[in-house]
Amino acid sequence: MEQQDLLIGIDLGTSRSAVVSNRGTRTVFESVVAYPKDLIGVRLLGATHVVGDEALQKPYLQLNYPLKDGVIQGRSEQERDAAQKLIEYAVSLAEPRDGDRVCAIIGVPANASKVNQDHVLEMALQVMDIAMVVSEPFMVAYGLDQLTDCLVIDIGAGTTDLCAMKGRLPQGDDQVSLIKAGNFIDDLLCSSITSRYPDIQMTTAIARRIKEEHAFVGEPKERVEVELREMGKPVTVDVTAEVRAACEAIVPEMVEQLEKLIRGFDPATQETAVSNIILGGGGSRIRGLGQMIADALSSYGDVKVSGVKDVIFTGAEGALKLANDLPPEYWDQIGNTELG
Q1: pTM here?
Q2: What is the dotted CATH code of the domain comprising 5-139+313-339?
Q3: C-alpha 166, offset from chain centre
């Protein structure tokens, strides 16, 4: 039987991961691995672990998110085991067949260290024949055919990644990773609501749901009122100021780093670059964010910020597009690559 290449694009995210393949796979799942807390949990689950969305549906499981701030955690044996199972699960969703040569391009934060990249590759090669890691904002840019004179902002749960595209592969000075991203907003929102309403029963998971439904920056168009629990009883509270402050907290450092990247372009192309800023990732859905960034950078010229149409799959599809455009044998010319 002739060997077939199964090409996979994987966007490993702190909160959610997306997987696409050249055979039509297009799926997203929670980046979580769960283990039973005790023998009862093993009996109820009927397995030693579960990966993805199902893990959140069973309260008798201990949740492990192996990607913190966008990079694999490996301090403990369980963290390493969870990371390996997460990657294995991502590949299984592409449904490899016997005899396939499994080739995957995996997105990592813009400035992930060589050590962390090697860690990802080491685990990937347990279930792949060829693997390459590339920066997540570069995957977004490649998927959109925005390869020169543009800036990409990719706001995920663990990191906000910035990338200046200059018609060549991004170099170290062309990319920045910031840890003020979705999880940072969740934590800040949770603590600020708790501070204002001490008797409200708050968790970061509740804060995340509020953010995903109501996130905004700038002047509010309407009040954000949500139903929460106070001492076990349902109450409606106004969290407009808390949502705004938490979302706006990621903007100053982002703008500061964007200014540095703008100055790194050739002066002849800076005008084009600031008119072509692309906002992606789950954080791009924060209402008013694009305009706030444009206003903050207005001294640099006619700034235009546009959002990607598909915040979930743009990165993974960019990785798959790269895999289709370049045979796996040549991947080592682009990024950190390993052969199984």
Answers
A1: 0.89
A2: 3.30.420.40
A3: 23
Assign domain 182-248 to a CATH class. Answer: alpha beta
Which structure tokens are listed for 121? Answer: 């590759």
Q: What is the 3-state secondary structure (H, E, C) of 247-313?
A: HHCCHHHHHHHHHHHHHCCCCCCHHHHHCCEEEECHHHHCECHHHHHHHHCHHHCCCCEEECCCCCC
Q: Which amino acid is at 334?
A: I
C-alpha span between 310 and 14 (Å, rounded): 18
User: Is the domain 146-180+250-307 a CATH 3.65.10.10 member?
Assistant: no
Quick one: how far is CA 150 from the chain centroid? 20
Close Cβ partners of 307 (under 8 Å, ≥ 6 residues apart) = 278, 279, 280, 284, 285, 290
> In the predicted model, is pLDDT for residue 42 greater than 90?
no
Per-residue pLDDT reduced to its tens digit, 144-187:
999 999 999 999 998 999 999 999 888 889 999 999 999 999 99
